[in-house]
Write a structure and sequence with these properties.
about 250 residues, 2 domains, eight-stranded parallel beta sheet
């Protein structure tokens, strides 16, 4: 395994669009990932989808849990971007890394996260310390900014786990998209809303143009009001019918 110096990625993709792919249920057709040609960042087991990418398409994997190392032995060509300090591997010489061709390493939480986030790109190139907060995707977004991207397209990262329009695509046990192999055997830990809020904040801090691909379209105020009115009338009709049965002739 050959470590790639973190500093080499400063503004490497300046002005380009990144695609960030998570494990959440989505309406997106994963086969279309290869058609974008865009550098793609996989969060955890979403790296299973690298098979859809074009051969020359750059791709990276972010992971903070040791179970994700199951993918290393599967011969992934995607470059893992990992904390070197024991969070997932024990340094750059950890035997778990042997099956990989190369990897990028960064430093894990040596100081207050507000200071980490305040770094200039020049300072980040020197420290190699990414912002981590509560979700793997937050470190990925910090790296996306460091690489110089000006836009990001999210797939399976919308934080929606119970929307009826995507619920049938989610695994009954984990809620993850059923089309993604959960090789790490991981389960969610219930922080989707917090992760999404911080995700949105980071995109604003970094000045990234954002789109969510395959996410259920947010309903407008009129649609929500109409739905609420229909629910009220439906409930009133049910109650009236029930009262009629109870109050009818003996």
């Amino acid at each position: 395994m050959r470590p790639i110096p973190f500093a080499e990625y400063r503004d490497r993709f300046a002005g380009q669009t990144a695609v960030v792919v998570g494990k959440g249920p989505t309406l997106y057709d994963f086969a279309a990932l290869g058609e974008t040609g865009a550098p793609t960042f996989f969060v955890n087991d979403a790296v299973a989808l690298e098979r859809h990418l074009a051969q020359s398409q750059p791709s990276f994997m972010f992971a903070h849990d040791r179970g994700q190392t199951a993918w290393f032995a599967r011969g992934i060509r995607t470059i893992p971007v990992l904390p070197r300090d024991g969070k997932i591997v024990e340094g750059e010489s950890d035997p778990l890394l042997a099956p990989l061709d190369k990897a990028i390493f960064y430093t894990w939480r040596t100081r207050d996260q507000s200071l980490v986030l305040a770094q200039t790109k020049a300072e980040l190139a020197q420290s190699g310390e990414l912002y981590t907060d509560c979700g793997t995707i937050h470190a990925a977004l910090h790296f996306v900014w460091y690489c110089g991207f000006s836009a990001v397209r999210f797939v399976g990262c919308d934080g929606v786990t119970k929307d009826p329009r995507t619920a049938e695509l989610g695994d009954e046990r984990t809620g993850y998209d059923k089309r993604i192999d959960n090789a790490s055997n991981s389960a969610p830990w219930g922080q989707f809303i917090r992760i999404r809020r911080e995700q949105d904040r980071l995109c604003k801090v970094f000045g990234l143009d954002v789109e969510y691909w395959g996410a259920p379209v947010e309903r407008g105020a009129i649609e929500k009001t109409s739905e609420a009115v229909r629910a009220v009338f439906k409930d009133l009709k049910r109650r009236t019918k029930s009262a009629g049965r109870r109050g009818g002739p003996a």
